[in-house]
Write a structure and sequence with these properties.
6-stranded parallel sheet, TIM Barrel, 303 residues, alpha/beta, 44% helix
Length: 303
């Protein structure tokens, strides 16, 4: 990762690559993991920490942990990890929540309590608690235990309102729901209403899906109907809100000034680069029914 960062800096003459450091505080001695965090900060320009509370439970059926240490009998490492992140001056916690593949530790139920106890830390909820096999519906008391609504419930139960220290990330989530206008409207509408229009941040997981151009274009073209705005109190998807989602919110979160760090190129240069890239703007995956069946069989329904 750091090699990629340094190559980009040489080519572009600016700091356009930001690094997350992965931490597995529940694997091995806790103190050794905290010391490793100190080492990473000394050696690299770390901007955030990436954690997977459902590891290794996802693979072994045990060993998960929680950011708020609310459950006895599992590794009590969440509080110490967050405190160390704040102490080291890198108070951004990027945590995988949702897309759980059956692991209960991928639930976002610990986000609200952790955010309430640590107001000096920012919690970036990767995938926003979305589950690929769950239908996204409006938030209500009856549906609070479903998909993204679990994140909203955790925030509301702990007094975390919009635009506070919880951020909702869209990687894989938008890729899944952009083909379903109703689900897409509920996902964006709920996040903008309850997490805040300044706290929804862009992500594509394009390493899995290929060029993110179709995801970008879908968001730019998407709108929430007036009916949904009135019925569910969702905001309109204005150009300004889309601008925030597609980069301005993350730039503010990471302390990046896009005005002083522009990426200058001409339209002709852009088209030339697009022509020479091996994959172009192609999205990975099957393009017809036969290819889809083969893909599904080979990957056992995984992306």
């Amino acid at each position: 990762m750091d090699e990629t960062r340094r190559v980009a800096e040489r080519l572009c003459h600016d700091e356009r690559i930001l690094l997350h450091a992965q931490v597995l505080p529940n694997v091995g001695p806790l103190q050794a993991n905290l010391e490793a965090m100190e080492d990473r900060v000394r050696r690299y320009p770390i901007k955030a920490w990436k954690v997977f509370t459902h590891y290794p439970d996802l693979y072994t059926g045990g060993g998960g942990w929680w950011l708020d240490d609310h459950e006895r009998g599992v590794p009590q490492v969440g509080e110490a990890f967050i405190e160390k992140a704040v102490e080291l001056g890198v108070p951004r916690i990027a945590t995988h929540k949702g897309l759980s593949s059956g692991s209960r530790f991928a639930s976002p139920q610990d986000i609200g309590p952790a955010a309430r106890k640590h107001p000096g830390a920012n919690f970036l909820v990767y995938h926003s608690g979305f589950e690929a096999d769950t239908l996204e519906v409006p938030y209500s008391w009856a549906s609070r235990g479903v998909g993204i609504n679990r994140l909203i419930a955790s925030m509301r139960d702990n007094g975390i309102g919009p635009d506070r220290n919880v951020f909702a990330e869209l990687g894989s989530t938008w890729w899944n729901v952009m083909r379903s206008p109703t689900q897409a409207a509920h996902v964006l509408g709920k996040l903008l209403r309850f997490v805040g229009e300044d706290n929804v941040i862009w992500g594509t997981d394009s390493i899995f899906y290929g060029s993110p151009q179709d995801q970008i274009q879908a968001l730019r073209a998407f709108h929430i109907t007036e009916e949904f705005q009135e019925r569910y109190r969702y905001p309109a998807l204005t150009p300004e809100i889309k601008r925030k989602i597609l980069g301005a919110n993350a730039a503010k979160l990471y302390g990046v000034d896009p005005i002083t760090m522009p990426c200058r190129f001409t339209r002709r240069e852009l088209e030339r680069v697009r022509r020479i890239l091996p994959s172009g703007n192609r999205t990975f995956g099957p393009t017809n029914a036969a290819e889809f069946r083969a893909h599904e069989l080979h990957h056992q329904r995984w992306p």
